[in-house]
Design goal:
By secondary structure, this protein is α/β, with parallel strands linked by helices. It has helices at about 20-30, 45-55, 70-75, 85-90, 95-110, 130-135; strands at about 1-10, 40, 60, 120-125, 155-160, 165-170. Helix 1 (about 20-30) packs across helix 2, helix 4 packs across helix 6 (about 130-135) and helix 5 (about 95-110) packs across helix 6. The chain is globular. The N and C termini lie far apart (about 30 Å). The mean pLDDT is about 95.
């Protein structure tokens, strides 16, 4: 079974685009227990790229789609919110739902580049993580997933028979 990990970037200082030392240390700690990954994609923002590098992974691609969802989606689905709230927003079929579908299609296409039993990693941002995961599994029960993702948190999605079939939330312990 193939897997796709989607994680939020690590810690940065307010008003900085770059990870701070605490963020580098957190990403290193998390990265020690991840991988290997056949494909690593980050947003175009420094903090996402730097998170992947600090985790110990070379970046294959930086993609604008996973960088930000824009003002219209932000108004429709402001971050942060619990996963269950995002599910309800996506069900309304507004701008957030459209963006979630675009992310899901991008992730589906990514899985073509991953070998059987292989894995891929995406590092992006709060709100983008949640909407992408929900887009990939629109009928999944996210009611127990709770709060929005924190730094380096996210989800692992499982791929079989040409589609995403299951997921687990990935939380970071202190």
């Amino acid at each position: 079974m193939k897997t796709l990990e989607i994680r939020r970037h690590s810690i940065r200082s307010p008003l900085s685009e770059h990870l701070n030392q605490k963020g580098v240390m957190l990403a290193r700690r998390i990265g020690q227990h991840l991988g290997p990954f056949e494909r690593v994609v980050t947003s175009t923002h420094h903090r996402a790229f730097e998170t992947a590098i600090a985790m110990g992974f070379a970046v294959d691609e930086q993609n604008e789609l996973v960088s930000t969802y824009g003002r219209e989606v932000e108004r429709n689905a402001p971050w942060p919110q619990p996963f269950a709230n995002y599910v309800e927003i996506v069900k309304q079929d507004g701008p957030a739902a459209g963006y979630a579908r675009k992310l899901a299609q991008y992730y589906v296409d990514m899985m073509d580049d991953v070998s059987e039993n292989g894995s891929a990693l995406v590092i992006n941002h709060g709100g983008v993580v949640e909407l992408g995961v929900i887009g990939c599994l629109p009928n999944f029960d996210f009611s127990t997933w709770g709060d929005p993702v924190g730094y380096c948190e996210g989800a692992r999605l499982f791929w079989a028979d040409g589609r995403f079939v299951n997921a687990e939330v990935l939380r970071v312990s202190s």
